[in-house]
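so the lab meeting is tmrw and i was supposed to have these ready like two days ago... anyway. pasting both below. for each one the top line is the aa sequence and the line under it is the structure tokens. i havent really looked at them closely yet so no promises
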Amino acid sequence: MAKKPTEQPLQRSGKAGPSRSGPKRPRRDAIAELPSREQILEAMASEPDVKGKRDLAKILGVRGDMRTPFKRLLRELEGEGILTRTRKTLRITSALPAVTVLDIPSDADPDDLHAFPATWNEEEGEAPRVSVLQPPNARVVPAPGDRILARIDAGEELVPHYTARAMKILDKPRRGQIGIVRMDEDGARLIPVERKQKEMRIPAGDLGDAKDGDLVEVAVKFSGRMMIPRAKVVEVIGNPATEGAVSLIAIHNLDIPFRFPASVEKAAEEVKEATLKGREDWRHIPLLTIDPPDAKDHDDAVYAEPDKDPANPDGHIIYVAIADVAAYVRPGETMDREAYLRGNSVYFPDRVVPMLPERISNDLCSLREGENRPSLAVRMVYSKDGIKKSHSFHRIIMRSAAKLSYQRAQAAIDGNPDDQTGPLLEPVLKPLWKAYAAMAKARDKRGPLDLDLPERKIILNAEGMVDRIYVPERLEAHRLIEEMMIAANVAAAETLEKHKTPLLYRVHDTPSREKLTALREFLSSLELSFDKTDAVKPANFNRVLANAKKAGKTEQVSEMVLRSQAQAEYSAENYGHFGLNLDRYAHFTSPIRRYSDLIVHRALITALNLGNDGLSQNETIKLPGIAQHISSTERRAMAAERETADRLLAGFLATKIGAQFDGRISGVTKSGLFVRLLETGADGFIPASTIGQDYYRYVEEQQAMIGDRTGEMFRLGDTVQVRLLEAAPVAGALRFELLSEGPRVNPSSYKRSGKRPSRSYGPKGRRR
């Protein structure tokens, strides 16, 4: 807290202290010098009748030529949040609490952080600027763009100089409420993007420049005795219909930066292409990229050849080259700060929000066919059984021999090469597949979690709406690239640990005891068992999945196994990757789209003396904070991608109200059932009050709703038929009616002890 001044007031001629008629006028012989900040605050604290700058000037003897610089000094104090002006009255600003939530601006200097209070009464004037201290061994290390809980020190001086020590990095709340404007005969209304929020009227005078279909941010105000909420447009964000970008809603709802500042674009344009200086020349090695057919940036290339070392018979040498983003994006510079703020690229069906400007991501760093590109590469030697014998990292210039899609590479291996893949088949593709076959042996022996869930892909038409949805075929080419990327990631972590260089790990914790207990109870209801051991391994889950497949219960068990897993994240401390069954793992292979990988590249450059653009000491100190931030931006990206898919699918199905669909129960709660449609993957909800002709009790251990009287059961993973009753495209919400009947069980076996709810449901779910 800022201390209230206790010193004696300035000594002036005449009587001290205030009078009822106002402040005393100074004597004519008062010194007409510009007072200091401390003198101004001291005078204001000791003269409670001071109302404005005129009173203050009289008390301090300011006159003549000193008046203009005096006014300027007062404005500076206001601008710094030390003084507050209400109309013509000046007063000392309230002090910050000892513990305060602060927001660090996204454009703050990482080496000299400052922040402002997250909440501030505008009547107090400008929010005070707070210097954020960054001690070397701090447990919490904030960065630009973070919101922090901090301990505040105002100092001992009369003019408070606030400093803060971060106690915790907080998740930022979503921005103000946003929605779509819909014009009607009575004026306009707001269709909220949040499913739980209700529509609001927009008074005519509060519409601003918004038009029908515009996505807007609103302030909510209440009117009348009934305190009816009404919306006032404060910003027009855009029009998803005319811009053809449904993702615009999620981008703004989750505060995802999607336009690069001019300074970042300028910095990208000014970058000079990397040369061979200080690098190894690998342009003779026919590395090639294998990506989705619509990929625009290519950040990894692979090649394999037989190992000619007699000590490694039938062994393989595998090369993985990764775009050298660190060559262009330097620590602390403009592009680096923006990349950190974004944390990762975000992929939508209708657009990509990249982490780096196009000049970097799609040009200088993209491993284009036939063009020289700087890379950070790893050379790995494997035995015929897929055991890694050694590896080494190299900073290189490479030239991609070919740009292939998964489908074309797989077709060539399957005996259907084309004009480009035909000449590559014997010298490049077959050695790659042989090396992968060896790696697959070791992978199967290692036993990572074998939870291969299909992912649907949404294809849009020219208007930006859903054209079709399909599940891409899972090819061996996909697994080959995945396995080689995993191997490169492990090699990076091992090298950095060996050199005792701090790094960011990609970690995945062991499932919690509570989740394992819930899984065992659920499996027991399906007459399946789970090993009773405290040292649970992925192999335990794989056995359950294999048994479920034999029993025809793959969907139910896969869904529950997925729910039992912890969420992967980034950490400066290593606790292994449970899902991959690896002791150490780091993300190294996608620096174009993940900030974590850029950090690992810089760490390798520093550890191996590969250049002067490696991990700085300042970044090393901040690794815990960086890990927390990019874990948060990753979760934000996943939420945005999921929200956008939900909105696109809800819009696609909005014309099919009343149609019947096959689906699978994907979630069970007290309030009802979540159902995922088999054909489109769209998710919808069935309220508990509309299920069947009974009162349905939620039985957690069964992950089921069970009728009290009939024993009818609807359980996680069950296939059901539903009718679409309602679609809300803006909110991405669907409501279904359940048409199927469930199997019967003995209801008394599942009734919990205690008082039964007083309500019950009659035919068609109507309460009686």
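ok protien two:
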Amino acid sequence: MSKDTLEAIKLDLELLKKAYRLMIIAKTLADTYEENKAICSKYVHSTSRGHEAIQLAAAMQLKPYDYASLYYRDDSMLLGMGLQPYELMLQLMAKADDPFSGGRTYYGHPSLRRDGFPTIPHQSSATGMQAIPATGMAHGLAYLESQGLLNGDEKPIVICSLGDGSVTEGEVSEAFQMAVLKNLPIVYLIQDNDWGISATGKEMRAMDAFEFAAGFKGMERLRVNGSDFEESYEGMRVAIEYARKVRRPILVHAKVPLLGHHTSGVRREWYRGDNLNQHAIDDPIPKLRELLLEAGVAVDEVKLLEQDAKNTVAQDYERALNAPNPEPATFDTHEFAPTPVTEEKGERSPAGAEKAIMVDAALHAVDDILRTYPEALFYGQDVGGELGGVFREAALLAKKYGDARVFNTPIQEAYIVGSTAGMSAVGAKAIVEIQFADYIWPGINQLVEELSKSCYLSNGKFPIQSVIRVPIGAYGGGGPYHSGSIESTLLNIRGIKVVFPSNAADMKGLMKAAFLDPNPVVMLEHKGIYWSKVPGTEDAKTIEPDENYILPLGKANIVQQADEKEVRMGNSMTVITYGMGVYWAKTASKQFPGSIEIVDLRTLNPLDYETVKASVERHGKALVLTEEPLMNSFAESLAGRLSKDCFQKLDAPIYTLGAANLPAIPLNVELEKMMLPNPGKVAANMEELLNY
């Protein structure tokens, strides 16, 4: 390779020497981990061995204002951005000063907010999962740019790094679809080493990612030899420039060898055979070394680069080995980021205000938010355009705020949920909707792995501000796919908040608090009390609070008090419930005047356990009431906890009542009635408890 050729593609020797030194560092890291595997393989790791050229070529062209979503083999990418070997080894050994997670997550799982570096939000174990949050970042950037909310003249882009095998994941297709549909500034870098774990490309796919992406109209594509630094650098230059200037997605397919183990726990000698020797022919390090020598760099200088890299790794390894471990007492920090909403504010029942139904209170809350916060946007299936939601819960918002802020999505629950992580990382604040609770399951992957873990595993750097609205519950023959209750499943996901308002005033105040909360919040909105049309739910329609009304999450409400006389006589009990249960309890309680206290939880996580416990202890008798099938539910769990904590004050066992333990709500209304609780069933439990 002549110097003229190098100059033609503007690769100067200093850049080539820097890249070569970093390649040697990456190789030496892998070698060091192998030589000290008793220590370094205590926790599972992968390395970039064989992928160094394409990763460095990409990293060295990113700007500090860009965003990156990386994959677990991307340690050369991190070195190219400027991270030091010492910092990577701190994560390898799960040390306290691991800059990404403080010892909480695997090697090569970065999350970084640091001046002078691209922003790297948390992502999970990165087998295609990161494509949706990364695309959400690009979506957020496009939105902020369209609203004039990006600071300065920079044109940030997102790079999403993926292994070729991961592109077979359905969630990657959802990401690609939205990227081309919305013309998003993102580079999908596909590193194809022709292996999964022990499965080859031929076993896993009918086509590679480059061929697959041809089906996404508007996706630009290019192939590069990812083991050749020169070609990789030029390919990434073209791709990054395209995304930055044209503001549309592009996919780079880079063919690379896999020279290391899949992971330290799945060793290459177990399954690679002669394949490893074949891959070694494309080792990027000898190729770049030869390029330097052909360009006139002296052999001695090349050797100095190699020795300097090895010395750096050796010194950093000793430092990392002796670095402190995390303080065990910090294990539970950063489950949630602190919320600014800690007190009830505004007017809950302003003079002269009219009553509102719950669905309108929700609409008005979102309207207030969009009017007040230009970084806010609202999207989901059928919430935009003319319809404004199948329950009219977003009526006219698209016309009022424009299609950039309120819009329909494809039928992509994973994208709807997971994109909010990317939105949050770039400063956009998404309110999204899953059309029915029964349809949330495709989005659970993103909710669990990306949204719920981000704050904790990034050591508090990347809490995810996300409001996910979910119409829920059964009434009047909604059938098996529009009637389900899902709160117990959600409550088994740590790191998210779950809200379940039962009236219009609570809906408005809790929606505002959910939006201002820096953590993921799922708003469960019962369809049966949206309009107060179901007999007994008239109280769900309340005086509408003013636009400044905010109700903190985690505050239960005693919606009905028992008479003190009945309490003193031991003729009282409490019902702990939420959602439709409030109205079943109210109706049933009319048969027992003065004897029934009703606690509306309002928020299921965080749970106002102190109010609940105090109510149970005050009465000594309690019914925990839910619409869910009872077995293994949140209600049973809460009853069990109360039974233990309140045992000395109880006059009867904690009763529970819920739906029958069946897999779905039947369509026929008479069958539905048989399955669900109702005021009659609740009254029977009340009578039994009061007479216990």
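from a quick look at the 2nd one: The chain is about 40% helix and 15% strand. The first helix runs from residue 3 to 8. will dig more after coffe
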